[in-house]
Amino acid sequence: MRIIDPFLWQSAKFPPFIAFSKHSRISPFRTNSFAYRTVKDRMPVILTKVIDFLCRNKHKILESSTAEEGRSIEDLKLIIGKLSQLRSEMQTNKTLRPLEISSSHLRDDSKWNNELIEGENGSAPQWFSSPWLLVECYMYRAIYCIFENSIHLKRLDPFSHMKEELIIAQKCVLNQLVAYTNDLSQTITSASHLQANFIKLVEISLWANRNDLSLSGGDARTKPGSFLDDIEQLNSHILVNNVNELWLYVEQVQKDFQKKELGIIMDNSGLEMVADLCFAVYCVSHKLFDRVIFYVKKIPWFVSDTTFGDLQWALHYMEKDVPEMQNFANKCLGYLDSQQFQVVEEGYFTLPLPYHVMKKEDPDLYNKLSQSQLLIFKGDLNYRKLGADIDWPSTTTFEKFLQGFKPAPLVALRTIKAEIICDLPSTTVSELELLDKDWMTKGDYGLIQFMK
Ligand SMILES: [Mg+2]
Question: Which of 101, 140, 162, 384 has its Cα between 20 and 30 A from that of 430?
């Protein structure tokens, strides 16, 4: 098999969307970039893990299928073959083939294939010379496409076992987090307590975002017992921190609005999802917001991104745990019953499109988001989409970065795991680079960026 030679790529001609433009889109074409390392190293590993999982768990998967065994085996063999082909096409820099979607409930084929056929440079996009956002999203959409085109395994989530194992492995941390949030709620005796605890839960929600299976290749990052103890030290690594401005705005919402809705555009399942639930429970139980909408992914995405199925699985798992976890799960399920919590699946979040074109491409979703008084965008992929995955100068203002996207006041909570950033002085960037040249890709630094 021919593997991409980095030196060959360095001497190749720059594609038009990168060359000579003032602000280019991030692409694996640059061999010294994290995007390049992602497509070359991380993405093939993720595909290999899916293939290994299917091979190792053949019998379990066949047991869960309703079809007779012979037919399901053929189905599974076909899926494994197609996944291997996808990996080989990636590693040999083939073009991204139009998705063959026969009966997708997502109805996203025309939007996807427009992106794939037109390309930015007028020719079919290739794995190593196209915008990173397109290429990385394509891999996950193509994986789902392979499953949805099968006969008996259409709805199999090839990452669900990793997400479930993560929750089981993090059980102690989750117990501590739920108990801690409960304590915070019960010790409020003044407005300043309400504010201080709100800020603590925002910080917890931020740092929980370090746990990302697409970055770690499937391994849990947080070791039992360490998460809450680390928060204070981690807070010194928040490079832009607008949490006080955020609180002032939340106070203003209390005065100005009768109905107060919070939208959380979620990232990862596991610890981050539970931290977001803790934050939402705090907001609703202290009447900071009447309702919280959780926007989740409609299909398995970036390994650990939260789907509706993940949320249901986690709540039912917690329901059977120690009493404190049971109470927490019951509270969440109660809020879901009363619609104070709502889970919304939207197809736009699994398109390779940035958010500044949402108003034009999906006006219904834009209007839905506008109903909220505050939107929280969690994690790196949301951040990349907020900034259109452009290689912005670090000093770009958050407002410019968003390019007019503003359905409601919004905050980005993100640990930095990709080479895109704004609102950061260039002197800070130089200092961080001297400390660690990979500071933008490890999730060791965080941002709380708010725009009213
Ligand atoms: Mg994620």
Answer: 384
